[in-house]
## 1
Amino acid sequence: MPEKRKIYFTKMQGAGNDYVYIDALGTPTSLSPGTVNLPDLATKISDRHFGVGGDGLIVIMPSSSADFRMRMFNADGSEAQMCGNASRCVAKYLYDKGFTDKEEILLETNSGIKILRLHIEDGETRSVTVDMGCYYLHCKDIPAKGAIDDVMIDEPVVADGREFLITAVGMGNPHGVIFTDSIDDCLVHHYGSILETSDVWPEKANIEFVEVESPTRLKMRVWERGTGETLACGTGACASAVASFLKGLSGNEVEVVLLGGILNIRIDKENGHVHMHGPAEFVAEGHYYYQPD
């Protein structure tokens, strides 16, 4: 059996969405190309009993097209395109640990380059605003299937005999937004897990359940693909705000109340860019003893 690898990690959270962060910027690094199976590492390090515990793994890397690069792995080892909460934490990590003195960072992700604007107080990153780019609605881009006109707005989808009206939104990854009068555990855990893997989604999807409390305030819980329910989802909060705005249920600026905190979302009416503002915090640091298979 291969020997255990000692890997330095930092654990961070943004509105309760917690990930394990590994710095692959240095030379040499314990994550040099070909030395670690990242999906396997993500699964093991994310385990809340036998690992560090988290919603997944974030690897911070050099970039040839931006200031830095972020790769994101869900807790089941699958690689995702983007995570809004994680991108804010990456910004805090880079600035607070001295990798950059920029207060605006270009971050390469698997869904393109994102602009991170840091809000600094007393030399420390207190919060971050992320330009998430434009939302998109065409099913072929999300991807999703089943809509008559290639756009899913309140499209009926059946899960375990119950019909849901789903609005599909792309925010770098696929989202299915459902508006409801109330949200409970059965709705999120049972139906969310079924809808995540519905035939509607060729690559699975995050499922958001949303209550509209007012034109400026949404309440949301999310079932994330590859992870399950999390305390927050930045791209999900953006997708929910977009769906609510398109349906005329809210304005273009809303606060989204999640189990782990509040995110503020603004949709630019002129160019369709979605801006997300929220916190980022350090939780713990240490060494993880990774046992390859």
## 2
Amino acid sequence: MNKKELRAKYKALRQELSADEIEDKSLAIANKMLQLDIWEKTYFHLFLTIEEQKEVETEFVLQILAGKDKEIVVAKSNFDTLEMTNYLLTDNTKFQKNEYNIYEPVDGIEVPNAKIEVVFVPLLAYDKLGNRVGYGKGFYDNFLSKCPEDVIKVGLSFFEPEETIDDVSPTDIRLDYCVTPTTSYSFQ
């Protein structure tokens, strides 16, 4: 399937999930994540859930990161340049929803891309090679291309991988891992 077909398929599959299923599956993903070999790192970039899109609830991941005393980085998106500015999450970080229902920091301590060691990547679908399908704007591929070469990219998904994505682009950046409620896939 191509990206357009996969976006439609997985948006529809997500819409079938109840709030309880999303919460249960998200908690299972967070627990499964604990098995990954990433916890010696310090700077973790975390996407904030878009509830309207029925995304993986990242609050559980946030709690794990805080409990492990990690530096948590969150992004603010610029839809004109398709770039993200990253901010350190602190007790003083104030958030507001943008026009796409994404919670974003209003301001704060900016974190350069070079500091980021692990990125939790939102996705709609992915394949057995670690290629992913997002919403199609290219924010994460753009951002990841500016991170250190050894940054660890972890996708979070309610679903199992597709065999392949037909129209992968040379600018698409592959995942290192994808975590589902039942399995952690490694693409390294």
## 3
Amino acid sequence: MSEIIPVPAPATPEAALVQIGDVVFSKSWVVTPIGARPIQGTQLFVTDLSRTESKIPTWAIVLAVVLAFFFLLGLLFLLARENRTVGYLLVTVQNGDLVYATQIPAPNPFVAQDINGRVTYARQLIAAA
């Protein structure tokens, strides 16, 4: 069984350039809650486990039932829709023996775009190292 050799953290802290969840990237280091590694050779994986659900809101059902007795136009309330995004994005960082995954909640569809942009920037930092 191989022994895990700890990699020392940088002597002088570098400025954080991008943060993805609780993973921080600087010019030459990636820092996770379980350890720090040089950025060279780091791999990033993103899995989008969010989805957008569409449903008829409760208020529309109540109004449709109440107004259906008086006017058939009350059934038009059933056309109302409410969109809701649920789930999370899973970002995995891998460098040698360091494997760390973080879950980032996605309360709206724009979070996925933001995280993908951050991952693209982090990949550019890795390529430049």
## 4
Amino acid sequence: MLALHGAGAPIFTDDTMTTRSKGPSAGLGWLTNGITVGFRHPKPLLGGAAFMVVACLLPSLFTLPMQFHATRTMTPMNPATFGWAMAFAMLVGLLIVPLYAGYLQLVDAAERGLPARALDIFNPYRQGEALRLIGYGLAILVAYLVVIGIIVAATGGGIASWYMELLTAQATHQPPPALPQGFGIAVALFIVLGLFMMGFYAISLGQVALRRRSVFGAIGDGAVGALKNLLPLIVFAGCLFLCWIVMAIAFALLALVLALLGALIGPWLVFVLMIPLYIAMMLTVFAVMFGMMYYLWRDVCGDDTVTGLAQTTAA
């Protein structure tokens, strides 16, 4: 069943969903469509990305001063303080999950030619869907922690203590501790997990945000859809890695040019030019990231045949 939601973006309420498997070239399509979606709809998507950046930086206002104090005094952060800081960051992260869903709905509306505004990312809060989406975020967080715990336990459990020792060494400016036994195997497992989670999260978030699937139904669709599309996910990850390298080189060259201009004119010029460039890069990254997630979901679970129907209904 098709229903209108928010700014006119179509929302599907059918619980009998199927996931499709795509060929390897689909991974390249997800990347290219994600890159171009922001150029096709710059006003709503970059505006929505600006709200997203502000929301995602809010936890840093609480945790960064504590980290700065620990570094300046060369004393390790109190474990209780560290725990409270992490709990606060996770709480804010859960409150941001409805904004992720709202941004995905914004991309969907823009791509379907329906009315789309930057403020539409707050629609899940306005329309009473925030609790369901926060529940989804909590379920995803628990799943992440369980899988990470299994990997850490399977590799000997020394990684957790090594990580805490590493944080202490960084705070006190000491040499980093030696890598624990089983570190290489854990890294390989985390890479495989990250590859799977890219598809899992994009599909499950799309299902819960755009199809109005139940939390566990969306999670099931995400797991099945990611398993069915491991090959295009590998292609997607490889292409994405190459794009990050190209972008890092371009950013480094740009920073070098600005540094030379700063040496000739003054350091203030670097500061004045780098800040807007950095902000523009962050906004672009958000738009591209959610564009890729949207096209990944649409290839695996979406139904393009309803586009014309959705536009007719909205009119």
